[in-house]
Amino acid sequence: MAVMTYREALNVALREEMQRDPRVFILGEEVGLYDGAYKVTQGLLKEFGPKRVVDTPICESGFTGIGIGAAMVGLRPVVEMMTFNFSILALDQIINSAAKMYYMSGGQFNIPIVIRGPGGPAHQLAAQHSQSMESYFYHVPGLKVVRPTTPADAKGLLKSAIRDDNPVVFIEAETLYPVKGEVPDDPDFTIPLGQAIVRREGRDVTVVAYVGMMYRAMEVAAELDTEGLSVEVVDPRTLRPMDTETIIGSVRKTHRAVVVEAGAGFAGMGSEIAAFITEQAFDDLDAPVERVTGANAPMPYARNLERAKTPSNERIAEAIRKVCSANGR
Amino acid sequence: MAQLNTAAPGVDAGLARQLLSQMMLIRRFEEKAAESYALGKIGGFLHLYIGEEAVAVGASSVLRPDDYAISAYREHGHCLAKGSDPRRVMAELFGRRDGLCHGKGGSMHLFDKTTNFLGGHAIVGAHLPLAAGVAFAIKYRGGDQVIVCYFGDGAVAQGEFHESMNLAALWKLPVVYICENNRYAMGTSIERALAQTEIWRFGHAYGIPGEAVDGMDVLAVREAVGRAVDRTRREQEPTLLEARTYRFRGHSMRDPAGAIYRTKEEVEHEKQRDPILLFRTRCLQEGWLTEADVKAVEKDVNDLIDEAVAFADASPEPPLEWLLTDIYKEG
After folding, report:
1. CB contact under 8 A, A106 and B133
2. Which ipTM was obtained for this model?
3. In chain B, whose CA is at the least distance from the CA of A59?
4. Which residue, of A125, A148, A183, is where some domain finishes?
């Protein structure tokens, strides 16, 4: 085990996978000479050269399409979105080309591509640079969608994503890049896509949260522990395919659930999670599933408004108390 | 009638028969597809290639089997010319299990891995970056294949056309872009859509060599694409060709006459330059083929397409459980 940042863990994953498989290459804006806008690709140009670490001009649709075309004939591109907000320019390629090619071709052409980069709320980057983009992707059959929370997950999940034979949308969290944690050194360490993890065991309520919201949920859980509430925190890690089994298993134990997400609530991840909990574990629930979501507004610039847009520890705690006080606990 | 004036070095009876036969095969295929559409055996859109056969056939005749081709949604001709089995193509149009894509793609999404035919893409302009990506992979591996990318004049106004030209030129990618300029993007004429209607000239801005070619003359197409493919293979650089052609039918079966945005006189005038008629006449004049040869080719083609329709008809619908297969490839 080594202690490293989330950013370094991603860098190590890229390096190891490029060493392991000559078909893996990186494509994107500022990934080479500039060492990555967020330094995730630092040092890789030097190690692997310009053939495998390819700086592109600013044309998200064009270079994403190039990645998909290269994947059609057997390369394994890792396309960096400088931020995931820019992936909107490449949505047609990701949805119409990458996600559907295997199906449309009757199983002839799979697309082993990873599209990765930071997303979600950051620090006063305002409306166009702070979006939680996962909801644009997890709706699409044919895509896998990953949101890694810890440095170890960042490494293990990115390695799995690169080895996967399907298009994987891998949305890192901008605010988590400097977060440190223990990361296994083993180059064969991977975390399978589609496996949730119980971050903290508890008896009274299940809180489902990922990336930045998971850290808030953990803080709240520690606080509420002192009030005698035992909170279990589950991190789905992969949003599609979703490990419903782990979440349902937790809810069957605690009988109460709160879902937290940074993105706008309407038709968000929380809606889907609340729906499948209700469908599969209704009889186990002692209270309606509660959602804590980002406000249904674009991201504002002003610091106070930005803070109000994203779920706070207080709102998470309030939701937990609410579901726990319902029906006589 | 207009004549074909191309010099024809290296054309012999065998090549003449091959080119004529492929063009007639595509024509017959499309006519039968239209008939089958009218009978309700084919659904959705159906974009016929009738009138444009010389482009796919001339271009494919200079490709190696390991070269790649990719196209938009008017791609039956490109797919057949690259070597796909007409029976499986027709079965795909019929939405049957023996179709190239097991009935999951349909008319607009033909793919054939065995011939290196990479689709069948129905968002205008979106496959141009894909073609550049395939060329990127060829270069990455140090191969000497090329990819030919067919697209319509409608794609030229899209950003992805320009992104692809820039990237292919910047990175020196072995892709031959062939614009099939049939003068109408659905119902919008090039004059109403493009600031530069000489499409091959767009290459200048990106330093991509190219030329315009008579897309109704299969030998002219063969020569121009031959030069382009040789150069692209040798220099590892893109080429942009503009094949000037015309579609005799409407945009799709839902626009059967194509009569709102163009005059009857114009369509009739263009039909005088039917690529099959022109080449058949040329073959007879040059003595490459006799009337009897042409008749024999016609009979063979008709038989093949009848067989394709019968095959498609006999192929069962895909089983319902296939709805949920081929979404993710299992490790």
Report:
1. no
2. 0.96
3. B163
4. A183
